[in-house]
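Hey all, sorry for the wall of text incoming. These are the two entities for the joint prediction.
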Amino acid sequence: MSWAMESQRKNYGKALVDLGKVREDVVVLDADLSGSTRTVEFAKAYPKRFFNCGIAEQNMMGTAAGLAVGGMTVFASTFAVFATGRAYDQVRQSIAYPNLNVKIVASHAGITVGGDGASHQTMEDIALMNAIPNMTVLVPADGPETYNAVMALAERPGPAYLRMGRSDIPIITSKEDKFHIGKATTMHDGTDVALVGTGQMVAPCLLAAESLKAKGISARVINLSTIKPLDVHTLVKAAQDCGAVVTAEEHNIVSGVGTLVAAALAEAYPVPMERVAMQDVFGQSGDSDELMREYGLSDKEVVAAAIKVMERKK
Amino acid sequence: MNFPDQKAVPALEAQANLLRRHVIRMIHAAGSGHPGGSLSSADIVTALFFAVMDHSPDRFKSVDRDHFILSKGHAAPIYYAALAESGYFPTEELMTLRKLHSRLQGHPSRVKTPGVEMSTGSLGQGLSVANGLALALRLQGLDRKVFCLCGDGEMAEGQVWEAAMFAAHNHLDNVICIVDRNGLQIDGRTEDVMALEPLGDKWKAFGWNVLHMDGNDMWQVLDTFEEAKKHRGTPTVIIAKTVKGKGVSFMENNVGFHGKAPNEKEYEQAMRELGGSA
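and here's what came out:
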């Protein structure tokens, strides 16, 4: 398969500008990373509704909350490690608990940050945000889905976290696809094993499905782009139809997407499962592709996990 | 100075005392809570809710009114007392403070309590929220004020100073921050736990208009708010010198009553001193 490549954040920037045009209540905040998160596009188009908070993420989250109290729809952006870690208490206390209309859209999540190293590579952000009541958690799989997810978030009041990576990643969805918050998408049908991918691990799942097909294995590929609320129905259906599940995420295996899927299936329809994820270690500097290979986050590991989990079916 | 009207002062002083009695009753009934910081700020809160701010329960859903953020969330009892006496909910409900299923949580909750603007409790976060709200008002072309009441111990939180920079940078002259400078925090005197002085100089260096007042002198409180409201170009902070536990002799300047409910005997004496019956 050869896919065109594009970053998620580029699409975020585009979505903000398009939103700003039709929604006067949209206000955007950043913490000195507007060039990286691409909120700079909105800043250029609507300077009066953009506020650079400087390197002060805690104050940014509180300011976002106040703007929401004042009736605005607020997008607050920085790197995922700072949005969810540095400002965790502000997100919990000032945004989620009062159930305010603040969308935390964070870029540079996971190890694909690359050269910056472990200090900037969050692999626990999904766990942190998912654990907070009232929070919606989205992890789009590519650029177009990011655009559509941002548009969908703008229509849904309440706090939300949207996770984006840094790098250019394969375009596997279309801008014409409608994004439904809370609905997983079946990208490829199959009956022997279900590959549940999140974020930039969805494309490797599609590649893995091709490899498995060559081995005579029919793999279903599910794009789990909403982590909360979790689409338990689609997951249980996959477990029932395929009898084995592999999850794949660029996140820590501890309290990650695999954990959530396992918990949901354990309650409703337990089947053998394997989880492809960061193995509870900090990352390091390197190219994003190198790092994905180094930490076992490629289609190769998804194929191996699928074969392993199918053996456990018998 | 022709405003405030000196004649308004006695009635407001009586109102502050009424709110103080509510505070003591509520915390006594709850068996826990923070009397010290509610009593120190009672005159400030009374002035805001019954003289300074333009607000009413029927206009709470609109943003076209003045706003109040209680950054020192543990002073929830004085906030609830002011809200109840302003008609946001029945005064009888005050006695449900901290009880299971009560709308009056130990710390303010925007989603539970009518009239509460923002959920607070984790210290140092209110001023950022006030700034955001002030920006929202400005974006909507509304000439309204956001008052934010902070504790002095809270000044040790880094976020306060992030917010101070942000407000000055954005010329938020519709933000008026009040620091309840009662000089005490849970572990002792602020100057022993984490020295704050020279506090006014710090705010000035951050680009704020700095005013000082005796926060337990109603006339001074009214007068200082009037001056703050007129100021343009920069945000204003009022450093309000207050007495922790003000109005109840054995609670005054007594750090032991930062976060402790009075026992029966103390309750009766406190109510007597505040001119009410137990």
